[in-house]
Write a structure and sequence with these properties.
The chain is mainly beta and 253 residues long. It contains 1 helix and 19 strands. It has one helix spanning 5-23, and strands at 49-55, 67-71, 74-78, 83-90, 97-101, 107-109, 116-122, 126-129, 140-141, 152-155, 170-173, 175-181, 189-192, 197-199, 205-207, 214-219, 225-229, 234-241, 244-252. It has an 8-stranded mixed beta sheet, with no helix packed on it. Strands 4-1-7-8 form a 4-stranded mixed beta sheet, with no helix packed on it. The radius of gyration is 29 Å and the shape is globular. The termini are far apart.
Length: 253
């Protein structure tokens, strides 16, 4: 069978061009990163954020306006004691965000992604956290004429009627706390405002937020006090690296 001359020439040219392309002296261009829609590599711009709504009115003496609210991604100037939104705050379902309010100590607070958390102030208590204490979903009721069991906390009656418990005391789960130390052999502890000591490595134990729903503590050897804004029925972990608090997380029971 005779092979057409034109076909042979075409094959010869094709092989020659392919060889030159593969082995030519010109360097290849840079490989660009994939831009596929399913690329889930996190970036700072795509990290979840939420909002902290602050109501810092009242006569609490340490707050002077205008004041600045700071967090890891920026700051907001609060001009007065009205209600103001601090947007773009780092948010997470289980990692608490460190927020600094000028004139107050650092606060670790849960900011839900795309949601809001509320901080207020009161003349008696400083900065307060609007916790889930009155969430009907976690409430049980004391028996008639009785009190709440020791592993739950009694919620004082407000002026409004309690839709769950009526005249009986409302009972909600207590919070728990554990301390985690990153440095091997470190004996540093944390101490709350009542002098209770919490040691790293121990199992989570019951903890008692104050009337502002804050757990106020200082790391042993440090003069700086900090707050963890606590919901009822959650277990909180304070992570230390030496005397530094590196993160605070929370899990639900």
């Amino acid at each position: 069978m005779r092979i057409p001359v034109a076909f042979v020439i075409a094959v010869w040219l094709g092989l020659g061009l392919g060889f030159a392309s593969a082995c030519g002296s010109e360097p290849r261009g840079p490989i660009t990163p994939s831009s596929r829609a399913d690329d889930t590599t996190p970036t700072a711009a795509s990290s979840p954020t939420g909002t902290v709504v602050v109501r810092l009115g009242g006569d609490f003496p340490d707050l002077r306006f205008p004041l600045t609210v700071r967090h890891a991604r920026g700051e907001t100037v609060i001009p007065d004691g009205g209600e103001h939104r601090v947007d773009g705050v780092p948010a997470s379902e289980d990692e608490l965000t460190r927020v600094e309010i000028e004139g107050w100590r650092p606060i670790w607070v849960h900011v839900p992604p795309g949601g809001e958390t509320w901080l207020s102030s009161h003349a008696c208590c400083g900065v307060t956290f609007d916790s889930n204490t009155y969430d009907d979903a976690i409430a049980t009721c004391a028996p008639p004429g009785g009190t709440c069991p020791i592993d739950v906390v009694e919620v004082p009656h407000s002026l409004a009627a309690d839709p769950v418990c009526g005249d009986r005391p409302r009972c909600v789960p207590r919070s728990k706390l554990r301390v985690v130390q990153a440095r091997s052999g470190a004996e540093i502890t944390i101490v709350d405002e009542n002098g209770e000591v919490y040691r790293a490595g121990e199992e989570a134990g019951l903890v008692y937020p104050n009337i502002a729903d804050m757990f106020t503590f200082a790391v042993d050897g440090s003069d700086q006090r900090q707050d963890v804004a606590m919901d009822r029925g959650a277990t909180y972990s304070i992570f230390l690296d030496g005397a530094a608090v590196t993160r605070v997380s929370a899990t639900r029971w």
